[in-house]
Amino acid sequence: MRKLILSGGLALALLGGAAAGAVAAETATLVPPPVVDEPAEARGGSETAVLAGGCFWGVQAVFQHVNGVTRAVSGYAGGTKETADYHTVSTGRTGHAESVEITFDPSIVSYGTILRIFFSVAHDPTQLDRQGPDVGPQYRSAIFVNDDEQRRVAESYIAQLGDAKAFSRPIVTKVDALTGFYPAEAYHQNYATLHPENPYIFFNDRPKVANLARLFPDRNRSEPVLVSMTAQ
């Protein structure tokens, strides 16, 4: 399912007076912190997490506003390098999911806290092979783990949230080994920041960033940490 990409005055004309209400009506689920987490001293100065939760624009936007995150890159995970491009992934037949690679300082924000934000505001983990208006396995909910320790934390947290019935429906998030992360095309990077009035961003992604500030004020940074286009 293709995303609607419009900008500027045309977007505002289409949104009309209902836009502000739609953003205000967006909800999130504040889930409890993980009982099992990585100790900060275990990782040194930097760690990466790869998460998939629907369109990567919104997931990237959320984590670009998290204190302790030094980089958040939109890309693809779950398939091969040869099929890691937007049009091929959009067929839903590559094994890839639209994903975000998050580089963070574990002494400031833990892996477990990254997952807590992921489940609370970045996406709805009860939607199977879709997220909002986007449908297909490329929009699935997934955590791609780097090692056994990340797997232990992720699987424990999903079980914890399930036992607590944190959501009204079962969590469908899968935990898979990361076999490779492939950055998306440059025009996908920083998309929510560069196109704030795009109707898709306005309705689906800006509320996620607002919910981060509302539910995690101590974790929120007002200015996003953006991907350098020269690095892509």
Mean pLDDT: 90
Strand fraction equals 15-25%
The CATH superfamily appears as: Peptide methionine sulphoxide reductase MsrA
| Lateral arrangement of strands in the main beta sheet | 7-6-1-3-2-8
Q: Which CATH-level-2 architecture?
A: 2-Layer Sandwich
Class, according to the CATH hierarchy? Alpha Beta
Supply the helix-strand structural class. alpha+beta
For the secondary structure, the number of strands is 8
- What name is given to the CATH topology? Peptide Methionine Sulfoxide Reductase, Chain A
Low-confidence stretches: 4-25
Report on the biggest sheet: 6 strands, mixed
Percentage of residues assigned to helices: 25-40%
End-to-end Cα distance, whole Å, is: 25 Å
Question: How many helices does DSSP assign?
Answer: 8
Number of domains: 1
Topology pattern, helix = H, strand = E: HHEHEHEHEEEHEEHH
Gyration radius, to the nearest Å?
17 Å
Topology, element by element:
Blueprint: H1 8-15, H2 19-25, E1 47-53, H3 56-64, E2 69-77, H4 86-89, E3 97-104, H5 111-122, E4 130-131, E5 134-135, E6 141-145, H6 148-163, E7 174-177, E8 181-183, H7 191-194, H8 199-215
Parallel strand pairs: 6-7
Antiparallel strand pairs: 1-3, 1-6, 2-3, 2-8, 4-5
Helix pairs in contact: 2-8, 3-5, 3-8, 5-8
Describe the structure.
The structure is a single chain. The protein has 232 residues and is of the alpha+beta class. The chain has a single domain (8-231), classed as 2-Layer Sandwich (Peptide Methionine Sulfoxide Reductase, Chain A), CATH 3.30.1060.10. The chain is 33% helix and 17% strand. It has helices at 8-15, 19-25, 56-64, 86-89, 111-122, 148-163, 191-194, 199-215, and strands spanning 47-53, 69-77, 97-104, 130-131, 134-135, 141-145, 174-177, 181-183. The strands form 2 sheets. Strands 7-6-1-3-2-8 form a 6-stranded mixed β-sheet. A hairpin with a 2-residue loop joins strand 4 (130-131) and strand 5. Helix 2 (19-25) packs across helix 8 (199-215), helix 3 (56-64) packs across helix 5 and helix 3 packs parallel to helix 8 (199-215). It is globular and about 40 Å long. The chain starts with 7 loop residues before the first helix and ends in a 17-residue tail after the last helix. The relative contact order is 0.23. The model is unreliable at 4-25 (pLDDT under 50).
